[in-house]
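TOPIC: backbone geometry
CONTENTS: sequence, structure tokens:
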Amino acid sequence: MGSQWENLVVDSQDPPRLARWWAEALGYQITYEKPDEVEIRRTADALPGLIFVPVPENKTVKNRLHIDLRPADQEAEVERLVNMGARHVDVGQGDDVSWVVLADPEGNEFCVLRQRG
């Protein structure tokens, strides 16, 4: 018997703000919001979701888990996300890779992959 992946939990200093940022980035919607927890999903019944919870400390080291995004147009998507407040980061990926590493407004790294094919 297996388990169903329900959510990925993201520690955040400002959960509502970061949840809204990711909802806009992914085209998701807020499906649940309380002062200590905000959940976003593609639709209310689509799994998995992302849940943002408060923590007092800043992020200090590279993520051990990150999200990969695969847009239809990598360059346009990187520009859109940077305009929304993401920033380019170096996590040791080098110069000769096909993906772009960005960080969200609280410093969580994620990758924007090149389109398939």
